[in-house]
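QUALITY CONTROL LOG
STEP: pairwise intake check
CHECKER ROLE: data steward
CRITERIA: each record must contain a sequence immediately followed by its structure tokens, with no blank fields

ENTRY 1 OF 2
RESULT FIELD BELOW
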Amino acid sequence: MTTTPSTATATAAPGPGSSSSSLPTASPRETAQVLGGAVGPILAQGVIARRPWVVKLAGQLGTDDRSVRMLQGLRARHGDGPVRLPIPGRPAALVLGAADVRRVLEQTPEPFATASWEKRGALGHFQPRGVLVSHGAAREERRRFTEGVLETGSPMHSHAESITRVARQEAVALRADAAGSGVLDWPTFVTAWWRVVRRIVLGDHARDDHTLTDRLTALRRSANWSFLAPRRDDLRRQFHDGVARHLDRAETGSLAEMIASLSEQHPGTEGSGTEDLAPTDQVGHWMFAFDPAGAVTLRALALLAADPHLRGRVRAELAGRDLNQPQELPLLRAVVLESVRLWPTTPLLLRQTTQPTTWGAGELPTGTAMIIPTWFLHRDDRSRSDADRADPDQWLDGSAAQDWMLTPFSGGPGVCPGRELVLFTASTVLATLLEEHHHVLLPPERFAARGPLPRGLDPYSLRFGVGRSTAAGE
């Protein structure tokens, strides 16, 4: 689905006679419905650290289905918007059209900053100097540093051989354990996933540093409450000290090695350099972002387990490849992208206006929260033929890249800098799990490949029967 770019621009002041009332505005009742019936369930599930029991309950209650219908009704009454939400003390607007999504994401960070009030409150619990909550010169420097380490835009990281080795070793061990017990579930998968993450980011010595990631998880749980929760400064200090100890080793083949190399180019002088780059804050964000990528990977496995045709295509892509060597695996990456599209790990993209911003005949005041409801835009069955089915081919033919209603990794200058690294890691793990083994989706989460896919798929309840493949391939 191709969209038409918006020609609207931001200005420092409104045009003659313009006002915010010129923009469509939800009624107080509609606003309460959106906050309580659409945004509320997302917040309840945990934005920074998922609450598995709430995720499960939301799936059972079908909250995603109801929220999609609610926003469909809002758009039918008010158009693509942006639709202003009259929230007392917090100006906000829902962005529901492709051209407007494009404008907000392409005009990041000015006038649409990533460092929204809500993000600063939440992420300040464990990464107060992270790039996502930085602005101005600090953001530019930290973003440049982050992109340099993660090699944003490169499908094959320069440490691809090391990453492949790590992902393969942990996935082979996971596969053997699952084949031995006959079942692969979330607890066994996530233990192996975190080992992969710690080794890729911090080095092999961090493989079994469960304390480090347990501290991060505890901080993220506090971050769910944003400004409402007290800061756990001692715990944050312990986490950052633990990260710093691993970074000091700068193990060969890890991102820590790249951090050390790039940090040397920024001497720690006042006002610039290593201190301002805040490497431990950036690492905290990368590890936080890698966590939901585990859920993405397991959901992608569920798509493959439920769809024999798609699974056959993936097996054909893997056939004859030496998986001990780095492989791009375009189709398998596309399946991972579909997993994020169908079940976004960032259901709400937030930006905040840094100045009065004209929009059509109206104006959005400084400090307006721009809310892009990705979970709705990806699954709106009134405007998308692929809303409830997997369509990995759109990522192969380039059509998805031109569709601004699809933003599984955000977009524009604020796009997730670890997008390619996540796709490479996830596809390598999946390829290893699929190698000479088959997976059958077990209850309680079951769905038909050709039927409407559930809008809520609880990764923590996913279970697979696992066995060695027969000569016929299954």
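ENTRY 2 OF 2
RESULT FIELD BELOW
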Amino acid sequence: MKYFLIVIMFLPFISFSQPTPTVEENIPYLVTFGKEGSTKWGDDDFCQTFFFSVPETQKEPIFIRVYDPDTGGEIDEQKGDFNTKTSFSVYGGKGCMSNKDARTTQPTGSYKSGNLLSSKTFGINNTYDKNWYSFGPFNPTEGELMHEYGGYIFKIIAEGISGDDGNLYKYYLSTGSDKNNPVEGGNSFTYEYTFRLYDDFKNVSHIYPYIDDKVISLKQSNFDWDNDGAIRIISVAKNGELCKVSGDANWASSEHVVTKEEKGTSYDIQFIKSNSLQKNNNVVLYVTNQYGELLPFFNTPIGGVPKYKYSIGVKTKKNK
């Protein structure tokens, strides 16, 4: 899979809340299965990478907090007896993000690039069931400075190193070790998103890829949607353009033309369930441009949540 470094340094990285997933995304949890799990349960590679952007103006230490990092509690997806261990590792320094292997859809090559700052493996542990664990403190300058991404970048990798259960969890970029205090101007993003949907089909989940001025078309690829309703795109020029959806343990892709009005905005890819009986649905998504290069998903959408502008798609008839 190709990659590219999207240039967005001219855009403000303003964030009002910093959980990952965010309130705007309406996604209950991230999910990573143990490496002996079945891909039919909605995780294609048992590994997930996220990046956190910390502004250069940030002087206080930061923490990357994980909610419910253990496997074995009420939130997690049990397959037989709980037997899964998940490793969470935080990286910074040179190559943390700039290394091409860090920005792909598969955990191959030097995807663990950069300096390992902290790591911990969690199994069954009631201490962390529905509780937070904090990595840090980290000096902001311990991240890799990437001006085009708004500051210093930290990487966290969640990897199912054993077992077959699903570990469901969340992140928070914080200035506190025991509180969720947002880092002003921070953001988080990933290139491949593996997440849990709400069981309630009335809840619509959202993912926000950024469309820069070089993108003329994109290709969305989703895995293990289980034909559980519709996936559609909302943008300033699209009012619910449907995407091709996947079945059980397979991939489906569709291409979508980017209009002039959409450049420099975010897309809102919406996941709309229709089957109220479908429970514990996990899905994977990534998006590429016309060259097959991956586009990042920003948890706080760049430019804000896109709204369809009716006037863009309407042509008025001129009087003869």
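INTAKE CHECK: passed for both entries
DESCRIPTIVE NOTE, ENTRY 2: Confidence is low (pLDDT under 50) at residues 1-16, 316-320.
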